[in-house]
Structure formats: structure tokens, C-alpha cells
Amino acid sequence: MKQFLKFTLASIVGVIIASFLGMLIFFGILGAIAGSSEKETEVKSNSIYQLDLNGSLIDRSEDDPFSAAFAEAFGQPEQAVLGLDDVLANIKKAKNDENIKGIYLKGGMLMGGFASFKEIRDALIDFKKSGKFIVAYADNYLQRNYYLVSVADKILINPQGMVEFKGLSADLVFFKNTLDKLGIEMQVVKVGTFKSAVEPYINTKMSDPNREQVTVYMNSIWNTMLKQVSASRKITVENLNKYADEMMMFQPTEKSKEYALVDSLVYADEVDSILGKYVKDFHLVKHGAMNKLPDNAKFEKEKLAVIYAVGGIDGGDNEGIVSSELVETINKVAKDSSVKAVVFRVSSPGGSAYGSEQIWRALTQLKLKKPLIVSMGDYAASGGYYISCMADVIVAQPNTITGSIGIFGLIPNIQGLNNKIGLTYDGVKTNKLSDAISINRAFRPEEKELMQNYVNRGYELFVKRCADGRKKSVEQIKAIAEGRVWTGEDALKIGLVDKIGGLDDAIKLAVAKSKLKAYQVKEFPVKEDFQTKLMKSFGEDMETRIVKAQFGEHYAIFKQIKDAEKLNGIQARLPYDILIK
To answer: In this structure, what are the phi and psi dihedrals at residue 216, rounded to the nearest 5 degrees?
Structure first.
């Protein structure tokens, strides 16, 4: 009894201490948030917008002051996250603000998709039309960062730095051998010769059709990069390929200057003097401050809505698209009489076929009332294409990954694992198929046939949606479907998209179609408020942060396995876990 009381008292004390520490952290975070609150930015004359190219690039910024606060509270470095929407808006502000004379691109380690990088690159090219300058400096440039900064008037690099310029490669992780050791068989039903999302679970290497499609779209992305770097740097594509074959990152830095990939080799402390040649007595305005610079947009009664659909569809967690919530948003916009046109921004590798159908239905009803333009981001493939196909016009970047019109189902058979650990099962049933689709045994022939027919119906519906949306016959869509992945550039040639361009181009098309004169852009879904973010930060978001910190660079593999557990129903999903380097 004495020991019991001792341990009980210790537990109570532990809970009190933990609660007290939790409150300290909570108020510390609130203090950090309050301290970070700033008034609107006032730009001084002779200013330069500094955009730090480090961290991760996402489609839409998250109004999240908690990351820095949590990092500070737990003694961890803050992970920088840039929203593409903020970057594009700030470049436009910098172009239009007479006090801002140029842009300083600092760093070269930003991670993100190729289409998003092109969108920023296009915005920088438009910025230069104002006659203002762009200077870039980094200790090291990752390849896609070099592609981005190649538009700069001056590209500077540390004398001991590296320019990663070596061509593209793609890696796909395969789990079959691991699953075999565990005694788990992944049973697959699918439609589409090229539908390769299931390959990591049933193969040890790429199938020939998958290798073919990856080769085609990788070369398309690389050739887009080469052409645009060639135009900006006045280096022939032939020479750029030669330099890539030398693997420039391991060549002496002087060689990058000799080949005109960069302009000058300078240390970080010399950059100010170079910027000073463009603007005397300059002031740097950092990205966070630019976010607080008002865009001076006038209030207008008529609106143009931009609806964001970013991430996997119904993946079973808070990351990505929740179809029921997105449908609710679409219906709300459809009923809003002040909204005269809609741009649907899609950056999704797909997911639940059922969820995709519900989104398709909501957008079809919206399209009856308002012009609907789709703007494709890094991915709009499989389910991502399903929810795009009905648009009046589809706009994609040349390096957008799209298509992948195919369906699959994935059911594990853990009988081998049960045998290894000694588990057995027994039971009763009332009908022939009452125990159908069990994970504790292999499919029976009639179960396999039922599943295949179910997937076939899903595929036929998917194809019909695409055929109706694209005003093509079912046979025409099937000829380019089979789960095959295309870049935006190739998709334009076969009629899966209508135009090459970015979000701004899609907005211009929507304005033209709706004949809007004066309008205001309104984004949906509305970003989460303070209280919602706070609760999430102490809930699932915190759990995700801890797991990411523990797994580090291996988190992507962990998440792929975790997501496979949550697959529900048939899937219209891209093999998007291929890592392009």
C-alpha cells in the first residue's frame, strides 16, 4: 500500500509538472506570436526586395506563426516555408512599387516542384520588363534553383561554391522484398498499362511501360529547362548538355564562370558592394516584410474566385484535399452572386476515385453558372486530372505532370505474416461471400473477378468524364489514357490541356470569359484563423512535426508506407513518389 501511494503521488506530481511546463510553452508561443506582429510595411526609397531561396516551396502560404515559436520553444532551427502565392504577389508588388529598384535572390537551396519554379521564373521575367534589375547570390545552387536564377542580370557564387548542373535522374523506392520478408503480399487490381502507382509494392524495379513514360516526361522537363536557361544565359543547348555531362558541382568553381553559367565569384561580404552599384544607400526589404506591404487593390463588388485544390485526395489525414470540405467550398462559391468567374488551382497527384467524382460533380454544377478555368501546378494527374477535365479551359506549365488516367485497387494479404507469428483465424458466415476481401488470405477467384469489375467500372467512368470534358470520344481518350503520365507540354499536343501558362494566365482567361472590367480576386478556402491553427499545433500538427524531426530525410518513405495503410476504395493516383533530382 505504501508503494502504491508513493507511485500515485509521483504520477500526480509528474502530471502537475508536465501541465505547468505545457502552460509555460503555451504562453511562450503566444508571446513569440505577439512579438512577431508588425504593422504594415512602409518601403523606403532605394529599396531592394530580398527573396531568400531556402527551405520548402508550397502552393499556398500558411498563415502559421507557430513554426518559429515552436522551434524556439524546443530549441530547434526553424524550417523556412515559402508560399508560391506570396512569392508571386511580392514580385508583382516589387514591380509596381517605385521605391523598389530591384530584386536580390539570396541562396540556392529551395526545394519545390518544377512547375512552381517556372511560375516564379516567369514572374521574374515579367518583373524585368519594368527596367528593374535582379541579382542572385548563393554559396551553392541546386539545379532547379540555378534554373530559377538564370534570369538574373548577375549570377554570383562563392569562390568555393557549387553549381549543381548534371541533368535529371528519378528514383523510385520499391518495398516488395521488404514485404516478402514480412510475409505480406499486396494484391493488385488495376486498369492501365502505365498505371504504375502500385509497382513499389509488387515489383523490385520499374516495368518497361513505366520506364518508358518516366523517360519521356523526364526528357521533356529537362529540355524545357535547357531551352530557357539557354535563352537567358546565351549558351547553346548543346553546350549546356556538355557541361551537365561534366557534372559541374564537382568541377572547380572557376569553370562555372568560364562556361558563363555564373558571372562572378565573390564572397557573401562582397555582395553589398555589388548591389550598391545598382542602388546607392539601398535598403533591403525581406520577404516577410513584403508580405505585409499592402497591394493597394481597391474594393470591388464583383469577384473572381481562386479555389485551391492542393495535395492528395482523401488521404486520411489533414494534409491534402478532403473532398467533402472542398465540395462545400465549391458549392459556396457557386451560390455567391458576387463571384463572376472561377479559377480552380489544382496541384494534386490524385487519390480517392470516389472523392474525385464528388469534386467533379460539384465543379460541373458550378460551371453551369460561371466560367471555370483550371490552372495546373506541379501535378494535376490521375484524380488531379479527373477534377480538372470539365473546365472551360485548362492551363498548365510545360513541366506540369498530368494525365495518368487510370484506376487501381490495392488489398494486402497478410497470411504469410500470420504464419510467421503464429496467428490463426476461424469463424462463421451466413452467405457465400460474407467473408469476402479479407486481408488474412489471398483473393478467391470470384473475389478477384468482382474487384476487377469494380475497378473496370471506375475506369470507364473516369474515361467518360474526360471524354465529355474534353469533347472527345471515349476511344480518343483511351488511346492516350492507360494510366500514362504526360508533361504539360506533351499534354497540349494530345488535347489534355488547352494552353501553356501559369496562374496569372488562367486569371486573365477567366476575366476575359466573364467580361469583367473591375474585379477583386478572392481566394478559397479561406485561410484558417488563429484559434484553429493554435488547436492544430497542439494536436495532429505537433505529432507530424515530431515524426518529421525523428525521421528527417527518410520521412517521405515513412509517409508513403503510412499513406498506403489509409487507401480506401479504388484509387486514381499518380506514382508521384518518384523523386526527381
So the answer is: -65, -50
